[in-house]
């Protein structure tokens, strides 16, 4: 994998459990789910088969870390590093920004935000009325959108836009609260609390002049990775509508890839921004845990989930990120962080100040074509000066299990009050995950948090030597929608593992990670590469993704709606 003579096989044992199991659907799946829900023995057996007892054998001295948080020394390190760069201005005229394409037309009076809003509404209807509907954006409030677009048009007419996002259409994942719209987290019954305000990150975008178009489709309660939804339909991949987008931020990635909006908000509890970004050929940033406020989101996975931007270009991710990020008095977890920065975002020609670590055994645990495309991009980045060194990542299997226990237990805890009344309204695959979550004990959860503590400290040690850890984003490109049935629910645990394999670790530890395109398969499907970094180092991740934008020629998907 390494271009240098230092390529050496890691000495530690690499193991990620991949249990062969048939994909289940229809009556077989429902029978299996009913067995699982009624039999504790069946639940325990399934947990054991999937190596859930691997943590029981560990004797750990570490205290449980119930939330992934950096040490003060790490935060101070990032503040000092920021001072080495002069911050880019938020309104810098980045030539590769799609936002700038809108703004130039607005300023030249060739287009208005009102024109764009009308076009987007028409395209959303078109995309959802076709024989194989896209189902990316599933709810809009036309009056609110047109009112905001008229106000933005007036500001441009007066030469007083609010920010580089003024008049930019943006969509929001359906587990985030948006005024005048009913976010339901992909379910048929969850409701935003009556007294709850719009999410902080949405309010910040709205105050910057962004046009909040509507809500995007998602995998039900964010607990799956394909994007199939029994209530709103499957979000289809714009590169091939017979394939999945990935999840759970399925509609957000599909809407961006298809050109309906240049940016959308997703959330990521186990790869849910990065997986659909990889499968749909977009750039998706999972910031450091608590970098963006979680105020105004369904708290389904409170210690692993983080909101972030999805865009076609890294620079647009960066501009949206900087507006959304930062401390929020309504979310106490956001208080310990340095100011968000876009430092060094224009330093693209020479990457010699950056070092990436590669764990070969992990990197190569993917389809050969995926590994080849990611390897080629890594070599191209080395030609820009990026330093590549071998590293080891011990106990990846233990971290995988700890992440599963954490997210399954937290989601079950949140959903338990709804189960008696609404169990039969949930998709079978959702019931599968919640049934396993119901079997987890407090001992399991606390042991998982000890593993989290250990994984965080080990990554911190690695990030003292390297700036990034690199891998493919997913082990496989976009899978086919089985049976091409818009509402069919299929349980395929092997596929789930292949899509999540490289993502989960950084949800457990809270470190930021980004996915951006590495190229396209012989079938024309996008493949993403993932870079993860140290706490608060989103600017470095956005910088490397922006170089990737230069190095990989983008292909427009088969389903694409141009804004103008």
List keywords for this structure.
564 residues, alpha/beta, Amidase signature (AS) enzymes, 11-stranded mixed β-sheet, two-stranded antiparallel ribbon, 15 strands, globular
Model description:
- This protein has 564 residues and is an alpha/beta fold.
- It has one domain: Amidase signature (AS) domain (Amidase signature (AS) enzymes, Alpha-Beta Complex).
- The chain contains 18 helices and 15 strands.
- It has helices at residues 26-38, 40-49, 72-82, 98-107, 113-129, 142-157, 200-207, 250-257, 274-280, 314-324, 360-363, 368-382, 396-422, 428-438, 442-462, 493-500, 504-509, 538-551; strands at residues 24-25, 137-140, 169-173, 211-216, 236-237, 240-244, 263-268, 283-286, 306-311, 355-358, 387-390, 468-472, 490-491, 513-520, 526-533.
- The radius of gyration is 22 Å and the shape is globular.
- It starts with 23 loop residues before the first strand and ends in a 13-residue tail after the last helix.
Oligomerization status of the protein chains: single chain
CATH superfamily, by name, is: Amidase signature (AS) domain
What is the number of E strands? 15
CATH class categorisation = Alpha Beta
N- to C-terminal distance: 42 Å
Please indicate the count of domains. 1
Helices, by number, come to: 18
Kindly state the mean pLDDT as a whole number? Answer: 92
Task: Provide a brief overview of the structure.
By secondary structure, this protein is α/β, with parallel strands linked by helices.
């Amino acid at each position: 994998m390494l271009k240098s003579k230092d390529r050496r096989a890691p000495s530690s044992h690499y193991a990620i459990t991949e249990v062969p199991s048939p994909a289940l659907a229809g009556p077989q799946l429902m029978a299996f789910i009913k067995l699982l829900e009624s039999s504790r023995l069946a639940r325990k057996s399934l947990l054991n088969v999937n190596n859930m007892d691997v943590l029981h054998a560990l004797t750990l001295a570490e205290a449980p870390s119930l939330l992934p948080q950096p040490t003060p020394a790490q935060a101070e390190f990032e503040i000092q590093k920021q001072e080495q760069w002069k911050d880019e201005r938020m309104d810098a005229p980045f030539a590769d920004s799609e936002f700038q394409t809108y703004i130039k037309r607005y300023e030249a009076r060739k287009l208005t935000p009102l024109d764009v809003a009308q076009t987007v509404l028409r395209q959303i209807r078109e995309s959802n009325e076709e024989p194989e509907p896209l189902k990316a954006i599933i709810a809009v409030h036309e009056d609110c959108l047109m009112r905001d677009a008229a106000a933005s048009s007036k500001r441009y007419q007066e030469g007083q836009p609010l920010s580089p996002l003024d008049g930019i259409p943006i969509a929001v994942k359906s587990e985030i609260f948006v005024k005048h719209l009913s976010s339901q987290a992909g379910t048929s019954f969850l409701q935003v609390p009556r007294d709850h305000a719009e999410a902080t990150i949405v309010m910040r975008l709205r105050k910057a002049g962004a046009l909040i178009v509507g809500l995007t489709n998602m995998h039900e309660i964010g607990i799956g990775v394909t994007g199939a939804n029994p209530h709103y339909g499957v979000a289809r991949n714009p590169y091939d509508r017979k394939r999945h987008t990935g999840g759970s931020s399925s509609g957000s990635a599909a809407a961006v890839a298809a050109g309906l909006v240049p940016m959308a908000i997703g959330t990521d509890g186990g790869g849910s921004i990065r997986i659909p970004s990889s499968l749909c050929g977009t750039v998706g940033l999972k910031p450091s845990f608590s970098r963006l406020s979680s105020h105004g989101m369904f708290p389904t996975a409170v210690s692993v989930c983080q909101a972030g931007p999805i865009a076609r270009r890294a620079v647009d991710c960066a501009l949206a990120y900087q507006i959304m990020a930062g401390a929020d008095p309504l979310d106490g977890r956001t208080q310990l962080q340095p100011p968000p920065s876009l430092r060094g975002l224009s330093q693209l020609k020479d990457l010699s100040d950056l070092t990436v670590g590669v764990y070969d055994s992990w990197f190569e645990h993917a389809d050969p074509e995926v590994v080849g495309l990611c390897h080629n991009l890594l070599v191209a980045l080395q030609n820009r000066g990026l330093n590549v060194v071998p590293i080891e990542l011990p106990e990846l299997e233990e971290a995988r299990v700890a992440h599963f226990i954490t997210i399954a237990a937290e989601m079950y805890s949140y959903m338990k009050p709804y189960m008696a009344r609404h169990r039969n309204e949930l998709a079978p695959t959702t019931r599968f995950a919640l049934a396993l979550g119901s079997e987890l004990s407090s001992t399991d959860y606390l042991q998982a948090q000890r593993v989290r503590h250990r994984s965080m400290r080990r990554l911190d040690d690695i990030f003292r030597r390297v700036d990034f850890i690199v891998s493919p984003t997913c082990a496989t490109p976009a899978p086919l929608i089985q049976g091409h049935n818009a509402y069919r629910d299929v349980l395929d645990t092997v596929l789930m593992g292949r899509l999540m394999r490289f993502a989960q670790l950084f949800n457990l530890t809270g470190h930021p990670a980004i996915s951006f395109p590495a190229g396209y398969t012989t079938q024309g499907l996008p493949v993403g590469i993932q870079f993860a970094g140290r706490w608060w180092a989103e600017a470095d991740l956005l910088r490397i993704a922006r170089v990737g934008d230069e190095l990989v020629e983008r292909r427009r998907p088969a389903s694409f709606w141009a804004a103008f």
